[in-house]
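Please check this record.
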Amino acid sequence: ASAAAAAAAASAKTASLASHRWAPLLREWLKKSAAVFRRPTNFLGFLQGIPGCVPWSIIGVFMNDYLAVDKGLGVEHATTIMMFFGFGGMFGTITGGVLGQKLYNAKPWYMTAYMGAAAIAGIFPWLYLVEADDYGTSVEAMGEKIAVMFFAGWLATMTGVNVRTVIVNVNAPYERGTAFAWFNLTDDLGKGFGPVMSSALVANVGRSLAFKLGFGFWAPCGALCLLCGLTMPRDVDAVRREMQELADGRSPRRDEARAGGGDAERTSL
């Protein structure tokens, strides 16, 4: 009995120590999360990824099989066409980042307008690819579809490569770790939501119409990016003022910034 009582006391003491250790971390995380969500650009940037993942789920899960079976290309030719979507995405990641930086340097909202326009424009190559009935395995027919697929890949990567820059610039260095934790959480939520939504559409309306509706989810994604342009300049200015106050030693958050510096270094892009 005495041994059991001693074990219970030790367990209670361990639990008490653990709660005392985690309680300050939890309070700090809640405090930083509140600061992150006080900036509207963060909320819009997090939210855009949820509808934006629906078209990506169609591309990744269904499109190769759709081209091979429904469009009659066969696995080899369908895979060849989809490969050029990947090449277009690689090219878009590089050029999109460079162009986005130049637009941001000119005016921050130019970059968000570019992101939104690219997301919405990315719908139309896919509508053409779903609607087209002139697929073939000749060099001419394949070349046309490869060109459209490359262009689709180029447009599709514009938002993703630049939205992280938006998150970096509207958050103080000591809050970026928390901001990116929320960004990754909502992005993963979209990755789970996308296949469920696209599968439900396929089951109810068939593949062709489901894909057209699914690619339309890039429209709300683009609209949210455009709305970021209304809030981003104010949020960027607020962060710059806060950083200047920290540099001048006038901010009450000076000690917090010093404590959070290591986290900021790990999460900055």
